[in-house]
Amino acid sequence: MTKREQAERYKRYATPYYLYNEALLQQTLDTLTCEMGKDPRYVMHYAIKANANPIVLRHIKAAGLGIDCVSGGEIEVACNMGFDPRKMVFAGVGKADWEIKLGLEKGIGCFNVESVPELDVINQIATETGKKADICLRINPNVGAHTHANIVTGLSDNKFGIDMAHMFDVIEAANAMTGINLIGLHFHIGSQITEMDDFIALCDRINELQDMLDARGMSMKIINVGGGLGIDYEAPETNQVPDFKAFFEVYRKNLKLREGQELHFELGRAIVAQCGTLISQVLYVKDNTNKKFVILDAGMTELIRPALYDAHHKIVNLSSDGPTDTYDVVGPICESSDTFAINTQLPHTQRGDVIAIMSAGAYGETMASGYNCRSLPKSYSLNDIMAD
Ligand SMILES: *Cc1c(COP(=O)(O)O)cnc(C)c1O
Fold first, then answer.
1. How far apart are CA 40 and CA 186, in angstroms?
2. Among 51, 54, 203, 316, who pairs with 255 as Cys (CB 3.0-4.6 Å)?
3. pLDDT tens digit sequence for 223-254
4. pLDDT confidence of 370, banded at 50, 70, 90?
5. CATH classification at residue 218
6. How many Å apart are CA 27 and CA 45, to the nearest integer?
7. CA 108 – ligand 1 centroid, Å
């Protein structure tokens, strides 16, 4: 099928919408489970906040991954999709009482606790209901990451986790609580990290902390290093599947696990980003004195990443191969930050052209909003559109 025939086919469905490539998702999962399977101590909980679409979750579930949740709503979605609650973990700096109760009722595998007041509340609720909550302490390792400042989470100025300096006091407090069963330590330093040195710095920090635990005769069953592996937004076609091999090798080489310890991961973006594309159409091309604007029917309501953290997504005009011109590609929303690309080269573009915004499978559909009273975007599987 030519690019133009593909564009015509996409146009049969009202734009804008998310299009998911299930074959690519499956290929990504196969690579992931193959690389991870090389070490039986490795366990993956997929970070469902990246993408909670049933088309995607079906494959994740079939691949045997657990789920990393950051809200009660996510626990409910994962339960409704048939994931085993024991293979769910629950992080977040602000867990409401009902969310903690839900987690306890469902019997989730682990609460990743981010503060002492939260620990107290979980202990209280667990004790009242005659339960014991399995928990990991989320430690803020004060390790930076080379990524956008809005998605760095592991610095001491960030709101996430418990200060390293307080770790031993909190461990002692947790061990004294009847409703709490402390099983491990949790870390997550940020997202869209492509420099493996950042993960090495995390490993070094965890090694230090574990040495200190050893010195006090303490041990943890689980070390959870979170997610954060980045993807190639510049060249999605040539790098469709992230380098999971290199990622796991970083941990294999640099992190010293103790006897009987499990190493848990929570990848989100790396698993789902490349399998999703936002399909839109050009409403107008506006030729101003300084700029040509391509105005799409998709905007920050469908994909907020460019407006929220200057994210770059590759933009492809599926309807045209003509000589290129320089355009700003923008959405219809009443915000100047509703811009997908500035001074980008596209083939000569006109009203009705189909535009694919690539690598939109992570933090795309899950972040969609109804701003300007717009409807939430629909989603389709590429399989269905091709079979139609
Ligand atoms: C968001 C998040 C993840 C996943 O991050 P990615 O960059 O998508 O891999 C993992 N763990 C926690 C606690 C998170 O908040």
1. 19
2. 203
3. 999 999 999 999 999 999 999 999 999 999 99
4. very high
5. 3.20.20.10
6. 18
7. 18
Residue 332 has phi, psi (to 5 degrees) of -90, 0
What 3-state class would DSSP assign to 194? coil
Plot region of 145 (φ>0 → left; ψ -120 to 50 → alpha; else → beta): beta
Q: Which residue ranges have their beta carbon within 6 Å of ligand 1?
A: 47, 49-50, 68, 70, 91, 188, 191, 226-229, 266-270
Q: Maximum CA pair distance of the chain?
A: 71
Per the structure, the complete domain to which residue 370 belongs is given by 3-18+274-387
Q: Which atom of ligand 1 is nearest to the CA of 268?
A: 8
- Catalogue the long-range contacts made by 164-168 (C-beta closer than 8 Å, 24 or more residues apart): 164/139, 164/140, 164/209, 166/116, 167/137, 167/139, 167/209, 168/212, 168/216
Give pLDDT tens digits for 75-122.
999 999 999 999 999 999 999 999 999 999 999 999 999 999 999 999
Rounded CA-CA distance 154/317 in Å is 38
Q: In terms of domains, do 183 and 34 share one?
A: yes
